[in-house]
Amino acid sequence: MLLNQVKLTFIASDNVRLEAGKLRDRPGVFFLKSPSALLTNYYAGFKNDRLYTPAMKPIYAESFWGASLIHETRDYGLAFTVAPRLARINKRYDSSGNWSADQRSNSSERYLLSYTEYRLKKHTPSVNVMLGESRSVALADSFNYTPQWIINAEIALHSDQQWRHFSPQRAAAVQSYAFPSSLYTTQEKQGIELAIGGQYTTDNFSMFGLEYYFQSEGYSAREWRQQMNFVDYLNTKNQYAVLDQVFDAYKYLMGAEISNVANKGNLQGKHYINAYASLAFEEGSSLQPYIITNMVDYSSLIGMHYSTPFDYFDGKVEGYAGVFSAVGSRDAEFSHFGRSVGFYLGVEYHL
Question: Could you tell me the superkingdom of the organism this chain comes from (predicted)?
Answer without folding.
Answer: Bacteria
